Amino acid sequence: MKRSFALAIIGAGIAFSQDIVEISPFWAAYDSVKLGNAINDLYEDLVLPDSTPRTDRKYPITWESSDTLFLGHDGRINGRFVGENKVVSLTASIKNVDTSQQTEKKLFKVSIHGYEPYSNYLFAYFPSNDNENIYYALSNDGYSFTAMNNGKRVVAADTVSIKKGLRDPHVLRAPDGWFYMVNTDMKSAEGWASNRGMVLMRSRDLINWEHSTVHFPDKYKGKNFANVTRVWAPETFWDDTYDNGDGTKGRPLVYFSLLTNDGTIPYDKVFYAYSNKDFTDLEGEPQHFFDRGKSTIDMDIVYNPVDKFYHAFYKNEGDGGICKVTASSLMPKSGAASGSQWSKPSKALQQTTEAVEGAGVFKLINQNTWVLMYDCYMNGHYQFTSSSDLENFKFVQDTKTSGAFTPRHGTILPVTAEETAKLMKAFPTPDFEPRVIDIPDSIGVCDGKKVVGPCSGTKIIPYVKIDEGGWNETLDLKVAKGATVQFGPHPWDGKLWSWEGPNGFKSTTRENTLKNVDGNFSGYYTVTYTNETGCKSTARIKMVVDDPDKPYVEPDTTVSIAKKYRDFSKPARLNRNPVYFDLLGNRLKAKPRNTVYIER
Q1: Same domain, 96 and 128
Q2: Within 13 Å of residue 427, how many CA atoms lie on the same side as its CB?
Q3: What is the C-alpha radius of gyration for the chain, rounded to an integer number of angstroms?
């Protein structure tokens, strides 16, 4: 028992006396063993302590994973599902060294983040108040974009909308295989109070879109929603709890800001409605979702599995700036007032004093890094910030909006290499060279689904330049004595580089120059690249300098089997306890049937 309690019955009444016993050192140490919220959506290896963290008394810990195909006993991620998480039990056994017998177990549920099969980022946006159509742009890093379709629109507003204008496109990749897009149906030339509805669109490939319109004056005739002057910046969120009534769950929840001219909605408030099954209409009447007591527009909601909260970002219309609220559930508790599920607003999150709007939040591919972007609409650029927790944001870069790329309020979402190729075929983008991130090799099968390695390295392209010549891709080069050699491998936007080579050569930069080389420079230059997901790739560049005074000799890399398995610093002896290995070189616990074994 950690604590003891005393209970005394006195006369007709009951008096309670609580005697708190100080918690024992062992149980204090036991309680201190924590792994943090990262295990709710694990991206990187865990660092598991071998003893309790309390400094006054330490107790040894051993760890055991329930499935080493995914997570090793040492906390290393061995495998992932593609596109979905895998939950593994990790048990800490904590030994009480103050006694001879007691060992207590502590269980942690670790959700290993599924490998995301994406390579690039697609930006869907409208370009200006006098060009309210849908445009696309592509990026390899999520920050710098190239306009698609030779700078021409990809969806013509006059073919899908009532007002002949499409603004604020939001695109959702849903678990049912559809992409859902919602747009403000508006033409700003008719005034900011000219908006009466939205355009719903869906697609299987981001190229061919089905469309329908929701015109509030017609749909809600006789109700206050017929008097809207704004149905601004609609977005969708996939609610996986929605019961479709046919044994399936999940439906797009559509949320938007409403303002009416009859006084019933006196300032912009956020409302929601679920779409119908075919995404051609809204079901029922809009329901109040959130407002801050003043105009609230441009809301964008994301869910963070790490802290298990919904984060809703919005613009403080009239006051300026971007804030957010959080909630543990999309809807309020039963019987609670609408909007009561949301927290108090945060401080302003934009990293600038400029006027901003159109906040959009997305996650970088296979990284626990969130990006908050917003349109600095008075100054001709988008600003990008990043955060690991959706609480603290830091400035990354201002992306200039000019020429063919002039985005206004839009959405960024990750796309696969195959999707990128199809998009570029449909909408030519000659100035963009897409990055291709391969899915890691399969390492097994679990529950009938493929398990892949924890990460996928980025291919290193070994570009080399000799003297004033051009760049050539090679792993094997011969150069004259006295030459200048430059190594400049790609990817050019690489994260971490590490070099080792002859003559004590070491470097941590991508490009390196060797001047006046001689035979001392001959040999293998090994370059290791660590990409943004923490996965390493390695290339070996062999360089031979034509130097008669110091001719190159290929190193002897052969190792005899005897040397591999025996320490020659000790006298040879026959081990009467044989060691057994499988065909992959893995050590076995016992001699299997029909298996050749090695005595050593």
Answers
A1: no
A2: 25
A3: 31
For residue 509, the Cα-to-chain-centroid distance in whole angstroms is 26
| Measured distance CA(413)–CA(121) in Å, rounded | 6
Q: Which domain holds residue 254?
A: 120-426
Question: pTM for the complete prediction?
Answer: 0.83
3-state secondary structure of 369: coil
DSSP states of 245-265 as a string?
Answer: SSS-EEEEEEEEEEEESSSSS
Instruction: Answer yes or no: are the C-beta atoms of 148 and 212 closer than 8 Å.
Output: no
| Identity of the amino acid at 465 | K
At residue 484, the pLDDT reads 97
Convert 151-183 into a string of H (helix), E (strand) and C (coil).
Answer: HCCCECHHHCCCCCCEEEEEEEECCCCCEEEEE
> Do 51 and 186 share a domain, yes or no?
no
* Tokens 């195909």 belong to residue: 69
Q: Do residue 370 and residue 475 come from a single domain?
A: no
Assigned token pair, 320? 């300026």
Contacts of 569 (CB under 8 A, 6+ apart): none
Determine the Cα–Cα distance for residues 134 and 254; give it in Å rounded to an integer: 19
User: Strand (E) positions, 28-77?
Assistant: 61-65
Q: Are residues 279 and 220 in the same domain?
A: yes
Q: pLDDT higher for 25 or 570?
A: 25
Q: Residue 82: which residues within 8 A CB-CB, separation 6 or more?
A: 114, 115, 117, 439, 449, 450, 452
The answer for 151, left when phi > 0, alpha when psi is -120 to 50, beta otherwise, is left
Q: Model confidence over 142-194: pLDDT tens digits?
A: 999 999 999 999 999 999 999 999 999 999 999 999 999 999 999 999 999 99
Evaluate whether residue 443 is within a structural domain: no
Instruction: Name the residue among 114, 127, 170, 154 with its Cα closest to residue 412.
Output: 170
Query: Would strands 476-480 and 536-546 be described as parallel, antiparallel, or unpaired?
Result: parallel
Distance CA 419, CA 426 (A): 11
Position 16 pLDDT exceeds 90 = no
- Has residue 444 been placed in a domain? no
Phi/psi for 494 (5° steps) reads -65, 160
551 in any annotated domain: no
Count how many domains the chain has. Answer: 4
